[in-house]
Structure formats: structure tokens, C-alpha cells
Write the C-alpha cells for this entry.
Amino acid sequence: MKLNRDGSLTKYMLFVPTMVVLISMTIVPFIFSLLTSLTNYKATEPEKWNFVGLNNFVRAVTDQDVQASFINTLEYVFGAVAIEFVLGILIALLLNRKMRGITFIRTLLLLPMMATPVAVGLLWRWLLNTDFGIINYYLQSWFGIMGPNWLAESKLVMPVVIGVDVWQWTPFMVLSLLAGLQSLSDDPIEAAWMDGASPWQLFWHVTLPQLRSIILVVLLIRIIDAFKSFDVVWTLTNGGPGISTELLSLRVYRVAFKFWETGYASAISWLFLIVVILITSQFIRFLYRETGK
């Protein structure tokens, strides 16, 4: 094959390894999962499969366990992300000033994010242990309160799981929003201040509108990441008690690797993907409408 004088063929050939990896690692499994969702394929009986059309999707929509997992997922995602955003913007505003030790504080904020999800789940499972957990120990020794069984009471366990996610990922919100605050121009703020605007008016009418593009990005990242959460919840509660903290990601795992219903698990995954796309697209449309873009 003859090379062009400018070596354009060589430049295109350099993309070939990357494209091969991309296609083999993403596009092929993507298509395979879609095709599998239309069958009753089981990993334990790979030779016994039949085309069932949309039956798996109908079954997933009417499955009470999937419905419960979907509700748990929405509660977990929007509860955690909302708290993280509020705390993130408040802490970022507090840190957006010249103060001693700011570098140390920023470094400290990185520590929860640097821990692996499995380590975070195991750490909090130990801290919240009823018999020898530190939290119940100090509740008893300092306040004389008998600590509850944090991970076994259905009314407490979801707030606990959300709290662990908030502990780990609020620093991401803080650092991202702090970087956004420090990139803003001081001129609009100074002009509003000279016009007699209150601190609340400065924040709501001047600072927040300038941050909306950054808010869009960080909220999208966190919403999508929270929808994919698996490791922390699995190691912390294993989806229990019962299925009170079973997210859709855990339901897909159980169906695929406990019951070995690969086709059905693929259908649930595709419905999961559609829900995430719909929610994030509506969220983007809302924020862009608010910013006037």
C-alpha cells in the first residue's frame, strides 16, 4: 500500500490499535448484551436458549423485586447527591477565602475519595457494628445511649448507606465547586456589592448563575456514578436487610450470577440504562433552560 507524501496513512494507522480495543471491549459486549436480552439464555445452560422477544423486558417491568430495587436506587441517588451538593456548596463557600491551613484542608478532603469503595464499605461496616463498633461504643460511654443495629433495621439502613456515600463523595463536590468559585471574575460581585446587595442576593443572583455550567457537570458526574454504585452497598449491607438497600446494580448481579439468568439480567440492565439516559437528559434540559442556553 502506497503512503501519501504527508504520511496521512501512517497517522490513520496509529488509530487502529485503539479502535480494535474500543470495539472489542465496549461495542461488542454492548451489542451482545442487547441480543442476549431478547433470549432466555442462561450461563449454566448455554446450549439451551430460545428467542423470547420482549418477554424479559415485560417481566422486568412487572417484577416486584425490580420495582423495589428501582425505588431504592432513586432514593439512594437523589438523596445522596442532593445532600452532597448542599454540603459541597456550603463548604466551598467557606473555603473560598484566604485562610491559614487551606492547603492542608484540601488535602484532608481528598482522603475519603482516595479510598477504594470496598475499603469504605468494610470500614463503615466495622464502625457501625452493633457489638464492637466505635460509634455505638461512644454513644454508650459518652451519652448513655444504647446504639441501634444500624445495618439491620430497615428504617435506618438506607439513611446509613446514603450517609456513607455522602462521607466519601462530598469532597468531590467541594473541590469541584471551590475550583469554580475561584475561577469567577470579581467584577460582577463587586458591582452588586456596591449596589447594596446582601450576601444572600450576591450568592443567589450573581455567584450561582455563573456556577451553573460547573454545577451541571459535577451533578451529572455524581448522578451517573451514584446510579452505578455497587461496591460500597454490597460490602456494607449486601442489599439487606431483605432487599431494603438492594439497588438495581445489585439486582442485576443477583439475577446474572446467583440465578444465572443472563438474558433476564441483560434486559434489566438495558431498562436501567434507558432510565439513566432519560433522567440525565431531562436534568440537562432543565439546567440549560435555567441558564437560558
About this structure: The mean pLDDT is 85.
